[in-house]
C-alpha cells in the first residue's frame, strides 16, 4: 500500500511539474523579442517564401529580400542547410524550412496560438497548403505548354485534386468559424499564420500566377475568398 502511495505521489508530482513547466514555457514565449532584421533569400515570387514575408510585415519586422535566379541558386546551393531555398538570415544565423520559420514569427507576434489544440488547428491548414503546392508542382515543372495547360485544367475540374483540396479547406474553415461562434479567419476569430499561408496560395491563383487555372476560381469558395480579401486590404504582400 505504501509503495502504491509513493507511485501515485510521483505521478502527481510529475504532472504538477509538467504543468509548471508548460506555464513557464508560455511565459518565456511571451518574452521572446523579435529580431531586429531578417534577410529572406528566394526567387522573385511568392512560393514558399510568401507566407514568411507577409508574416514579417504583419509583425512589423524589418526585412530584406535577396532575390536569386536559377544560376545563382546553383552557386549558393552547397552552402545552404538543406540545399534549398528559401533560407532566412536571423540573429546572425542562416536557417531553413519555411514553415518552421513561419511558426517562429508567429510565436512572438501573436500569429501562432499558445493553446496546443488551437496550434494543431493552425498547423493542419499550414501543412495542408504544402500538400496543395505538391499537387501543383508537376505542372510547374512541365515545359510543354499544351501539356501544362491540360494538367492545370485537370487540377480544377469537377473531380480535380486541387478543387477537392479547396473544397475540403472551405469545410474546415466553416467548421472552425461555427465552433468559435464568430470570426472571419481560418481558425475563427483571430488572424494566424494559417490565414497568411492560405492567402499566399489564394493570391497566386487570383493574380493568375498559375496559367490555365481560372482567376475566378475563388468565387466558388466564399470563405477562402473572404480571407484573401481581408489580407489583400491589409497590404501584406511582400513583393
Automatic annotation (TrEMBL):
Keywords: Transferase. Residues 36-113 form the GST N-terminal domain. InterPro entries: Glutathione-S-Trfase_C-like (IPR010987), Glutathione-S-Trfase_C_sf (IPR036282), Glutathione_S-Trfase (IPR040079), Glutathione_S-Trfase_N (IPR004045), GST_C (IPR004046), GST_superfamily (IPR050213), Thioredoxin-like_sf (IPR036249). One of its GO terms (molecular function) is glutathione transferase activity. Pfam families: GST_C_3 (PF14497), GST_N (PF02798). It comes from the Eukaryota. Residues 115-239 form the GST C-terminal domain. One of its GO terms (biological process) is glutathione metabolic process. This is Glutathione-S-transferase. It comes from Chloropicon primus.
